[in-house]
Input
Amino acid sequence: MGLRGLLYGVYERRVAATLSTQGLPRHVGVVLDGNRRWAKALGACSADGHRAGADKILEFLDWCGELDIPLVTLWLLSTENLSRSPQEIDELLAIIEDAVERIAGTGRCRVNPMGALDLLPAATAIRLKSFEEATRGVRGTHVNVAIGYGGRREIADSVRSLLLEHAARGTSIETLAETLDVEHIAEHLYTRGQPDPELLIRTSGEQRLSGFMLWQSAHSEFYFCEALWPDFRKVDFLRALRSYALRERRFGS
Output
């Protein structure tokens, strides 16, 4: 470890010392952005960037485990990403499947695939669901892996599920319209039963959510980090948590 690494280590410990476990979020969402730009800067192919990003996921979840953050949502693949070239999508899905298998294999994480899994190849969807089943009894960090995910699609799926449920009960549209409230829709989201994310992080310097957790982020705090995802360090995460802890949350007021 060089001098720079030693200095970062000292700084990391100083930032960590300022954090109180009582001020940490229970649910952190992350837009893992910058894999392709990271690879391009090194003259490597996109797949190399995605593999480096997958390695970072395991490291990030270790940090969450150390801090007892119980719930994490990771956006690994958007619905828009599915329009990329078949070769890139095949490579990316293989890397994602391997990453989720590694998460499940830690024995410390409960995996929950979320998104429009019906848009994925059947073999991929089946494999992802198998990891969910294999980790169902794990009491560690609950990890939502958003794959084939879009915020608008999630809301549309929620409303569709709600309508089908009430149609099966014989509820009329008029009756449903009179009683419908936000909680009814929330109960049909991919994250139903979970607390909304208190903190959403996006790497790579982009200052937008691109539709990530549109419904759930109504009262979330946002943190935008310049580091590309494969370069995201523990000290960057601690800075995000420190920024969150210092904010006065107003919940829309």
User: Anything to note?
Assistant: The chain has one domain: 26-244. The first strand starts at residue 27 and ends at 31. Strands lie at 27-31, 71-78, 109-114, 141-149, 199-202, 221-224. The chain has a mean pLDDT of 93.
